[in-house]
Amino acid sequence: MSDTPNRTLAALGAVLIYAVVIAFTDNYVRVIARDGGLWQFHATRTAMAFAILAVLAVPLGLRLRPRRLGRVLARSVIHGSAMVIYFGALAFLPVAQVAAGLFTAPIFVLLIQRFAYDQSISALQVLAVLVGFGGVVMVLGPEALSGATFAALLPVISGALYALGNIATREWCRGESAEVLVAGFFAMLGVFGLIGMAVLALFPLPVPEGAEGFLQRGPVWPTGSFLWWTFVQATGSLLGVGMIVRAYQIADASKVAVFEYVILPASAAWGFVIWGEVLSWLAVAGMSLIALAGVLIARPSRAQSSTASRQWRRQSET
Fold first, then answer.
1. What is the maximum span of the chain, computed from C-alpha positions, in angstroms?
2. Of 104, 100, 79, which Cα lies nearest the Cα of 90?
3. Residue 197 · residue 19 · CB < 8 Å
4. Which entry of 21, 68, 141, 315 is 20 to 30 Å from 135 by CA?
């Protein structure tokens, strides 16, 4: 496993920024979906994101050349595939069920780290993941785990790929800049978007009106609303994804994965502010469990506390 020092509190701060920004922009996907298709959205957002990166590269001193192209490409394929499967499952599964499947990722993070990297996992970590996932189910509602069919496994596969991609951020891509990994992620989604547009242009499907046709809709002439909110998405996603990538670079994936549960209460809060959507008491209770999971996972282990104590004593003696 990586010997890079853990900065758990800094990672938590990065995840909070990610959650606030992404939750805001994702609330406007429903507006984008009225006028365009998912695949055109991915392709257009990637083009805009790269334009923004090109403008900011020099003044911010961004390093966009990967050190190990193969590893960055592998991570981008894994993460991009996770998102494609996630959005694709929305075509025939309830949103709650798809989201619940994706948020199995922290469980897969622990399993992969334990069996692929031989990292020990504590009972507290396991408890935090289970508490957090229980909170997710409560937020999404009891229907989140209904319909146990083969199709229902797709969001879980997405969660497993998402977990592997998050581990790859720290284990495979050590030394890469956050902007390289962000650019790789957007590039892969852009490629998937172009492929989807080409397929639907050659083999068009019946498309329902409005947001219901988001997944089946091929390339169309973009409206001003589609372009504006896709630009907002590109800008917010660059910041948000950059923050989550940084979080996985500076702390163990098992910790950061549980912090990511905060995206649900953040999305609910923006949903209330923007659309006036009110949560049930069950959802509020679920958010409390999510917060508890974050507190549990953020607590340093005895080994970490002992190491920190020894370091402090050495510094005091010198």
1. 74
2. 100
3. no
4. 21
